[in-house]
Structures are given as structure tokens and as C-alpha cells.
What does this fold into?
Amino acid sequence: MANYALLAVGVGVIGILTFAVPMLLAEVFPWQLIRRQHFGRPTMTTKSYKGRTVLITGANGAYGSRAAKLFAHRDVETLVLVDVRDCATVKEEIEKELRESGKTVMPNIVIWQADIMTFAGCQEIGKKAREQLKALDHVLLTAGILAFDCRQSPEGWETTIQVNFLSTALVALLLLPLLKPSPGNPNPPVLTFVTSFGIYPAAPSMWSLPKDGGSYLKSLNNTENGMKQAQQYGMKQAQQYGISKGLLLYFTRELAKRVSVSGDMRKVTINSADPGSAWTPLTQPNGQMLIPRLIMNFSSRDPQFGAIALVNGASASEDAHGKILHDFDTASYPPFMERKTGRQAQKRVWEEARKEFEAKVPEVKAVYRLLTTTRD
It folds into this structure.
């Protein structure tokens, strides 16, 4: 009997190691994907952006500023830098680099300062784009925050969800009708969101829909002081960041689906790009916390490679519509998003965000009407 018991235990252990552990890792920590990015060295896929217009949010950040320089060195005509901070220094750096490289023609660099912690700041971006831009070929939405304390935005949302999800989604909707290629651009315009593997460890918090029919978004809107617990390890903050990015990815996939069948907007490519991890001012506080530091050391690389991955995403062909782009490939959506409950959650995210936007931003109603107009 003892031998049979040992055999049963052995079979159980083998089963756990063979099936349960890989399944768990696929759900919450896709280490193979992360390591591929860690060692990935992407190169630019588009050689020239001559005659084109590019808009970047978060243009003062580690990824946004590097992406701006990549576009500028490849002859972009108009470069719109959007950030809560003044991007004058980024503009000066770009022009200095171009002069030193022998360039004689400088891009038209436009600076818009806007605080997307509020919907009014998002509206200001849409207003300026309508008034100042004749074409819009590439939009790269890199703006984001990682909050290390519990704060509420002026709109009543936890700040990470406000900036990384709601405001980013609203900016995208307001810019969507303005996306049209410049005369020299043979490809459809591209709208690119930034995603992150941080979605995976936050996935368990997103698996279940409220059983009482309450708001899915509000159930994830952690504005309580409880967010400060476990601050020593940074787990609550990392989880909230991952939730915000998961909500954005749900929104992005639903937006791509609706653009595909829209009679007016089906010529726009919507995708997500994952730059991987890097030590930047955004992630630097992770160095003071054990688990985030270990994960960053396991996954991080030079932020220049992440910027290249993002620019390639924003330059992708229409075949990339609705997909997640990594360095050299497309990636699958997280497993929980592919399940029935994930599809239901996606619809909830879309409808609840729509309700919030239409209540506070009247001009977005026209965009939603365009997205419900099906092709002939």
C-alpha cells in the first residue's frame, strides 16, 4: 500500500509540474514572453515618414520622447508632442540631434500641453487637433502613470484608471474621426495603444463580473486607503497599474472590432504595442521594493528598444488591426480575455465607459454614432 501511495503522490506531483504550473504561469506570469522581450532587439521597419503627421501623448516620458526622436530622424513632416509637462526640451534635443546629423530640413514640431487627469484636458487635445491638423497619419498613446499612493482624479476615478484607461480611451475616440493619411502616405492611418505584461499578474482581480449587476469598472476602481497596504512590496500599486492596462486592452479590442464594421472609419488601423520593461523614471520606485525589483531585473532592457517597438506598432500595416504587437511578432490576448466571461467583461467595459464619456463629454456622442454605422 505504501508503494501505491508513493506512486500516487509521484503522479500527482508530475501532473502539477506538467499541467498546473504551466497553466498558472500562462495566466499570471508569462515568463517566456517576458524573456523574449528582455533579449529582443527590434529595428525600425519604416525608413521614411516624409510628408506625414505624427501625434504622441506622453511625449516627455522615456518612451514618448525616444519615439518622437525616431520619427524625427526619419523625415516626419509634422510632429505633435503632447504631455502634461512642457515638451520644449524634447523639441530642442530633437533639433540639436538633427543638426548634428547633417539634416537641413527640420520637422514642424508642435507642442501641446494638456493634463489628461481630467476629461477637459482630453477635450483640449481633440479641439486643437480639429483646428490645427489637416492630416493625421500616426497616433501613439504612450501617456501613463504608476501611482504609489491612493488618489482620486477630479472625475472621481482612481488616478491610474483615470489616466491609463479612461483618459487614454477618450483621447483616442476624439482623435479617431481626424485620422486620415497625408497625400504621400499609401497606408491607412494607425492608432496605437500601449499595453503591458503587467496585465497578467493583475488578471485574478479582473476575472469575475459583479454578481449583483453592479458596475464592473467601479468594482475595480480602488480609491480606498487599502491600496497602501503591502506598499513595502509594491503589489497593490503594480496590480492597479495592471488593471488599468487590462481595461484599456479590453477597450482597444472592442474599438478595433467596431471600426472594422463601421462604414466611416474602417480605413483606420487600431492596434496595441508592448514595449516590454525598462528602468525609467516611471518604474524607478520599483527598485525600492522587493518583488517589483526582482521582476524588473528579470525583464528589463534599454528603453530605446521599447520605443522602437512602439514606433513599429504605430507604423504597422492594416494586417495588424486588432492585434497586439511585440518586437517581431504578434502576441495572443491574455487567457482570461478569451474566455466567455472575458468577452462579457469587454462589452461591459465598452458600455460603461461610453456612459461615463457621454455624460461628461457631449462631443463624443458623434463619434459613437459613427462607430455604430455599419458598412454598406
